[in-house]
Amino acid sequence: MIGLRYVYAVCRPFGTPLQAELTGVAGAPPGLLHHHGLVAVVSTVPEADFCEDALKAHLEDLDWLAATARAHQGVVDALTTVTTPLPLRLATVFRDDSAVRMMIESREDDFRRLLDRLHGRVEWGVKVYLEPEPAEPVAAVARPASGRDYLRSRRRHSHEQEERWQRAERFAHSLHERLAERAEEFRMHRPQNSALSGTPGQNVLNAAYLVPRAHSEEFVELVDRTKDEAPGMRVELTGPWAAYSFSGEETGSRPGTQSGTKPGAGAGTESGAGFGAEAGEGR
Amino acid sequence: MTSRFPEGGRFPEPYGQGSGANLADILERVLDKGVVIAGDIRINLLDIELLTIKLRLIVASVDKAKEMGIDWWETDPALSSRARRDELTRENTELRERLARLEELESGHAPREAP
C-alpha cells in the first residue's frame, strides 16, 4: 500500500529539533521537507485511510475525526514551541513529496508574507460564559398563593434573565476592548453552543487574539485578573495556539486585516457585526 | 515553564490545551481556520468545505444541527422556545388540575352528603 503525504504546517527553517517521540496523524512521526527556503512539516499516511473516498467517510466519524484532529493539533502545537508555524487545515494530503514541493512553489509568496506577519506571535483564545443560573430555593418556586402571585413571579423571573444577559454582554464587551488593546489583531468567532460543546453556561464571547510572544505573559495576567471581576461570569483562556485564526487567506481579500492592522479597522467591522447579535441566539 | 524561546519572550504555560483541550476548540481551529490548500489527490476543496460546514454546525449551531436530525436539546426549556411553550402547557395543565381539585373540595361534600 502506497503512502500519501500529510502536511501539517509550513514554516521557516528552524534550528531546534522536534521532540523525538512526537507522533502525528496515523501514528507516524513527522519529518521536515525543505524546499525554496521553506519547510513543510509532513508525515506519511496510509492511502487506504486518506484517499478521497476514505477521507469523506472518516470525516463523518466523530471518533476518528477527534483522534485525527488531536494528532494534527499535537504536531502543530509542538512546532509552536520551536518556531512560528503557518498551520494548515486538517487533512491536507498530497500524493508524494514532489507534489508537496510544487504546492510550496505555487504558494511561496503567500507563505512568506504570512510567515513574516505571524513571526513571533501566538494566538490566545478567550471565551466568556454566563454561568448557569443558581437553582432557586424550593420554597420560592413551590405553590404560588394566587394566580396573580404566579404571574408576578414569572415576570420577575424573565426580567432577571434579561438583566443577567445584559450584564454578561456589557462585561464581555469591556473585557474584549481591554484585550484588543493589547493584541495586534483579533477575530470574533461564533459563540459555541454549550449543549453541543459540553461546556456549562452560555457562551457570550468567543474571540481569538494575536499577541506577540513577548507580551503573552501580560496578556495572560490581564485575563487572569478579570476572572473574579464579574460574578456569574466565567472567563476561559486557551492557548498559546499557532495562529490558526490569523492565517486564513481571506486576509488578502478583506481590506483592513493585512499585516500590521490594529483592531478597529477591518477586523473591527467584522467583530462589530458579530458581537452580541449571534450571542443572543438560543437564549 | 520559563524556557527561553528562540524568537524571544517567555513561553507561558499552556492554558486548557493539549490533551485536555476542548474538542470543540480544536475542531474550530483545525477544520475551520488555518491555511486552506486543496491537496493534489483532489480531496475536493468543496467537499472538505461542506464537511467543515456541517461539522462546524454541529459544534456551533443548534438550528442547523437540528436540520441534520440532531434535536435532543429541543426538550430542554433553557435551550428551546418550543420546549418553553411545552413547559407552559404543562404548567397550565397542572394549574387546571389543581383548580379542579379545589372546586371539587369546595362543592364536594354537598353532593356526597345528599343521598
From TrEMBL, chain A:
<keyword id="KW-0304">Gas vesicle</keyword>
<dbReference type="InterPro" id="IPR009430">
    <property type="entry name" value="GvpL/GvpF"/>
</dbReference>
<protein>
    <submittedName>
        <fullName>Gas vesicle synthesis protein GvpL/GvpF</fullName>
    </submittedName>
</protein>
<feature type="compositionally biased region" description="Gly residues">
    <location>
        <begin position="263"/>
        <end position="283"/>
    </location>
</feature>
<feature type="compositionally biased region" description="Polar residues">
    <location>
        <begin position="248"/>
        <end position="261"/>
    </location>
</feature>
<comment type="similarity">
    <text>Belongs to the gas vesicle GvpF/GvpL family.</text>
</comment>
<dbReference type="Pfam" id="PF06386">
    <property type="entry name" value="GvpL_GvpF"/>
</dbReference>
<feature type="region of interest" description="Disordered">
    <location>
        <begin position="245"/>
        <end position="283"/>
    </location>
</feature>
From TrEMBL, chain B:
<keyword id="KW-0175">Coiled coil</keyword>
<dbReference type="InterPro" id="IPR050530">
    <property type="entry name" value="GvpA"/>
</dbReference>
<keyword id="KW-0304">Gas vesicle</keyword>
<feature type="coiled-coil region">
    <location>
        <begin position="78"/>
        <end position="105"/>
    </location>
</feature>
<dbReference type="InterPro" id="IPR000638">
    <property type="entry name" value="Gas-vesicle_GvpA-like"/>
</dbReference>
<protein>
    <submittedName>
        <fullName>Gas vesicle structural protein</fullName>
    </submittedName>
</protein>
<dbReference type="Pfam" id="PF00741">
    <property type="entry name" value="Gas_vesicle"/>
</dbReference>
<dbReference type="InterPro" id="IPR018493">
    <property type="entry name" value="GvpA-like_CS"/>
</dbReference>
<comment type="similarity">
    <text>Belongs to the gas vesicle GvpA family.</text>
</comment>
